[in-house]
Write a structure and sequence with these properties.
Number of strands: 2
Structural class: mainly alpha
Distance between the termini: 75 Å
Family: Belongs to the PPR family. P subfamily.
Strand content: under 5%
Organism: Datura stramonium (Jimsonweed)
Pfam families: PPR (PF01535), PPR_2 (PF13041)
Region (Disordered): 54-84
Protein name: Pentatricopeptide repeat-containing protein
Strand order of the largest sheet: 1-2
Number of helices: 34
Length: 674
């Protein structure tokens, strides 16, 4: 490599070609005062011939301290015989650390450490010294001194500490360089090495990198532990990348590790978010089979999953099971079940549960009161609702914006718009600020009672005041205009979303997609994607659903490819829509490729996805693949066998293969599947 010239405001520095490994090139230039070294480092770009892991090159130390060259192609540097006795107890580590902290470049640090270059300090002492040096640049210089000046035998512990320090400083490329250097020094990265890399990359949202480290770890046959896999699962969950979480959970179990209660509860939540309800339910059974007893959190997570997806009867079933196994209730469980009873028109049961909470030693909170208020309102028990609302005030139970929004909505049911408006003034007087739901509710009420001028005036005032206009508020105003017959006004609002200036583009896309405005949603989506503004996987999903509803299969595939390009992992519902789109476009090979690729990456499919793929094989008249997949699914205990047999029989019947259809039906009848 040719000489690199670095220029700073103080002076010029010449970095001659160095035999040091190309994957770790340090830019350690002179720094003048005891400040953090980061301010005195100059980054340079390297030639195209440099390795992608080239990150830093060390300045040439004084000739008296210059270490023997290290190169994987040369023989290993001569290392002096290990000392039999050390000076560890005679050296004050705190003083040494303090002095190291005063050094302003690697030359000073090397000079400071020169009395110990005969390795009269043990490796344990040096690793401890490294671990207590928090500045990543000094720790790298110290690591270089250990390896190249004092010629200690390279230590994986020393590299692990240096890795930790550079990762804490978010020096990602340096981490890659240190890892490669470990390899070239014939050091085998251990569990701590990989755990440190995976955890730091994952926490920073560099998830593809984190997963690539996990893959390297598995290729090196380094076993991960429960904490490592649990951290990755939790990171996936927080990033709403549920398919990746499921894939990692499968790897965890494949590696022979038994998940603990926390891991299982997290996965119940993940399966629920991925809308894999049966898998979430089966996980509770699996927990018992491996000796991990479900707790209150397990059941409340299941309840939340069903309630979020409007599956209230299933939630009621889970609650019954919870009582049967005598699992103690908590505040969250009671609040959820008050809501469930309300959704099932069981207001009396909701009322009974609420007033029995204190007997169970559970003190109702504002969520409990708000939920019962909503139940009373939905059951048109307006007197009970008003009584409970005022009871909260008499007992000094803190009310919040949700409390007032619920009461405003109740007054809206009786079209008492003045009382609703008075509540807005009341909440403002006690310091509770109305939110978008408050305003959308009052706008809706005014629209119903014919006060459209007041609704429009409030909406315009909100837009000009800088209040965040969310999709609910926008859609409420559009509906109000349409209900009043002012279609042109509604269209104008929709058209404005094409060039949103007061709401995020992601919100604009969601509103346009929800309103079925294909062209406008497509335009805004492409603009936002090209600008790198799409950070929410739900935006991709709503566009895919929009195109599927309107049979725009080419556009659907375009969004799916962009979704994968952005690093998002599709859920089971998205994959089903994508497979259907490929089928409509007669691109069966691409459908087959997506199906197999997602399975290899650990995606858990709902039955509908498998049946969709069977139908595509049938449409292509690839009956060999139909039979192969049928046999595979038939042996899967998690697949609904009745539906499987009916789907396959229907495929053969449609293809006029009567004998095969009869065979499948007879097989189903013989097993008693009917």
């Amino acid at each position: 490599m040719s000489t690199l010239l670095l220029s700073t405001s103080a002076s010029n520095y010449c970095l001659p070609s160095s035999p040091f490994p190309q994957h770790r090139i340090a830019i350690l230039v002179h720094y003048t005062k005891p400040k953090p070294l980061l301010n005195h480092f100059v980054l340079v770009s390297f030639s195209a011939t440099s390795s992608t892991k080239d990150v830093w090159r060390k300045t040439t130390p004084p000739s008296s301290l210059k270490p023997p060259p290290f190169s994987p192609s040369n023989h290993r540097p001569y290392r002096r015989k290990q000392q039999s006795s050390y000076l560890d107890h005679s050296v004050d580590m705190d003083d040494l650390l303090s002095t190291i902290g005063q050094t302003t470049n690697e030359h000073q640090l090397f000079a400071l450490m020169s009395p110990y270059k005969e390795r009269n300090l043990s490796m344990r002492f040096m690793v401890t010294l490294l671990s207590r040096e928090t500045d990543w640049q000094r720790s790298l210089a110290l690591l270089d001194w250990i390896n190249e000046v004092a010629l200690y035998t390279p230590s994986v512990f020393a590299y692990n500490v240096a890795l930790r320090n550079v990762l804490r400083a978010k020096q990602w490329r340096l981490a890659y360089g240190l890892f490669e250097e470990m390899r070239q020094r014939a050091l085998s990265p251990d569990r701590y090495t990989y755990s440190t890399l995976i955890t730091h990359f994952g926490k920073e949202g560099l998830f593809d990198d984190a997963l690539s480290w996990l893959q390297k770890m598995e290729q090196d046959h380094v076993s991960g532990d429960l904490v490592l896999y649990s951290n990755l699962i939790e990171l996936s969950r927080k990033l709403c990348d549920y398919s990746k979480a499921i894939s990692i959970f499968s790897r965890l179990k494949t590696s022979g590790i038994t998940p603990d209660l926390v891991a299982y509860n997290t996965m119940i939540n993940v399966f629920g978010k991925a809308k894999l309800f049966r898998e979430a339910r089966l996980l509770v059974k699996e927990m018992r089979s491996v000796g991990v007893m479900p707790d209150t959190v397990s059941y409340s997570t299941l309840l939340t999953m069903y309630v979020e997806n409007q599956k209230f009867l299933e939630a009621l079933s889970v609650f019954s099971e919870m009582n049967e196994v005598k699992c103690p209730l908590d505040l969250t469980t009671c609040n959820i079940m008050i809501d469930v009873y309300g959704q099932l028109d069981m207001a009396k049961e909701a009322d009974r549960l609420f007033w029995s909470m204190r007997k169970m030693g559970i003190e109702p909170n504002v969520v409990s009161y708000n939920t019962l208020l909503r139940v009373y309102g939905e059951a048109e028990l307006f007197g009970e609702a008003i009584h409970l609302f005022r009871l909260m005030q008499r007992k000094s139970i803190e009310q919040n914006v949700v409390t007032y929004n619920t009461m405003i909505k109740i007054y809206g049911k009786t079209l008492e718009h003045e009382k609703a408006n008075n509540l807005i003034q009341e909440m403002q007087n006690i310091g509770i600020e109305p939110n978008a739901i408050t305003y959308s509710t009052i706008i809706s009420i005014w629209g119903k009672v014919g006060k459209l001028d007041r609704a429009a005036m409030l909406f315009q005032k909100l837009r000009s005041s800088g209040v965040e206009i969310d999709q609910v508020l926008y859609q409420t105003m559009i509906v109000a205009y349409e209900r009043a017959g002012l279609v042109a006004h509604a269209k104008r609002l929709l058209h404005e979303l094409k060039r949103p200036d007061n709401i995020p583009r992601e919100t604009a896309i969601t509103i346009l997609a929800g309103s079925g405005r294909i062209e406008e949603a497509t335009w805004v989506f492409r603009q936002a994607f090209d600008a790198g503004e799409l950070k929410d996987i739900a935006v991709f999903e709503c566009m895919i659903e929009l195109y599927s509803r309107n049979r725009k299969y080419t556009n659907l595939i375009e969004v799916f490819e962009k979704m994968r390009e952005a690093g998002y992992f599709p859920n089971s519902n998205v994959i089903a829509l994508v497979l259907n789109a490929y089928g409509k476009l007669q691109e069966f090979e691409k459908a087959d490729m997506v199906y197999k690729e997602m399975q290899e990456e650990g995606c858990v499919f709902s039955d509908e996805v498998h049946f969709q793929m069977l139908s595509l094989y049938g449409a292509r008249r690839n009956f060999e693949m139909v039979e192969t997949l049928y046999e595979k699914l038939d042996s899967n205990p998690n697949v609904n066998k009745k539906e499987l047999h009916l789907v396959v029989a229907g495929i053969y019947e449609k293809a006029n293969r009567v004998n095969d259809a009869s065979r499948i039906v007879n097989r189903m009848t013989y097993r008693g599947t009917m």
